[in-house]
Design brief:
- The structure holds 2 protein chains of 2 kinds.
- In chain A, 0% of the residues lie in helices and 57% in strands.
- In chain A, the strands form 2 sheets. In chain A, strands 2, 4, 5, 9, 10 and 11 form a 6-stranded mixed sheet that branches. Chain A has a 5-stranded antiparallel sheet with strand order 1-3-8-7-6, with no helix packed on it.
- In chain B, a hairpin with a 5-residue loop joins strand 5 and strand 6.
- In chain B, the strands form 2 sheets. In chain B, strands 2, 4, 5, 6, 9, 10 and 11 form a 7-stranded mixed sheet that branches. Chain B has a 4-stranded antiparallel sheet with strand order 1-3-8-7, with no helix packed on it.
- Classes of the chains: A mainly beta, B mainly beta.
- At the A-B interface, strand 4, strand 5, strand 9 and strand 10 of A face strand 5, strand 9 and strand 10 of B.
């Protein structure tokens, strides 16, 4: 069974601070996706990383896929209240559309 | 982007009744859809893979007779929670895959009294 552990599980910081969320596994994934979910809604895709060592930027969000494709990180610069939500990483394997979801990180940005 | 809808968005039912939840891909066809369950403040747990024209594939520990899945067309999958009990209360979410991403429905909150 493939598992994805996210850390921290909960994070509450002041507006303007920086933060990093980690997503770790002992298994290799062909791609890794990051989603954000707001209460009462379905998750929304933020980014997909495919290549080991890949770095993708989405405005203030920076995503990195580990060289061995076993882990990933999400760094947010100058966090804003609108960044509040549940962040989920999810791994996929070639030829299989099924996703393995991480344990989740609940982020709260305090104005 | 692609859109997936769910109906109803919330439902309250009495213990022992059955509840059907619909998942539709609105602007693309999906031969596969996924059903997830999410408890408060937790991540998504995959329940089953819905396959158009064939039987669903259930994850370990999920009762197939309890959670009936039908994928009768390329745009519709249904999940029926049979003889619902309070412990079945949860947030149920479906998704439909496209290359390198999945599109999620808005979820259905089920409360069983």
């Amino acid at each position: 069974t493939q598992l994805l552990e996210q850390s921290p599980q909960f994070l509450s910081i002041q507006e303007g601070e920086n933060l990093t969320v980690y997503c770790n596994s002992s298994s290799v994934f062909s791609s890794l996706q990051w989603y954000r979910q707001e209460p009462g809604e379905g998750p929304v895709l933020l980014v997909t990383v495919v290549t080991g060592g890949e770095v993708k930027k989405l405005k203030r969000l920076t995503f990195q896929f580990g060289d061995a494709r076993k882990d990933s990180s999400l760094h947010i610069t100058a966090a804003q209240p609108g960044d509040t939500g549940l962040y989920l990483c999810a791994g996929a394997n070639f030829g299989n559309e099924k996703l393995t979801f991480g344990t989740g990180t609940r982020l709260t940005i305090i104005p | 982007g692609a859109v997936v809808s769910q109906h109803p968005s919330w439902v309250i039912c009495k213990s022992g009744t059955s509840v059907k939840i619909e998942c539709r891909s609105l602007d693309f066809q999906a031969t596969t859809m996924f059903w997830y369950r999410q408890f408060p403040k937790q991540s998504l747990m995959l329940m089953a893979t819905s396959n158009e024209g064939s039987k669903a594939t259930y994850e370990q520990g999920v009762e197939k007779d309890k959670f009936l899945i039908n994928h009768a067309s390329l745009t519709l999958s249904t999940l029926t929670v049979t003889s619902a009990h309070p412990e079945d209360s949860s947030f149920y979410i479906c998704s439909a895959p496209r290359p390198l991403e999945q599109f999620f429905g808005p979820g259905t909150r089920l409360t069983v009294l």
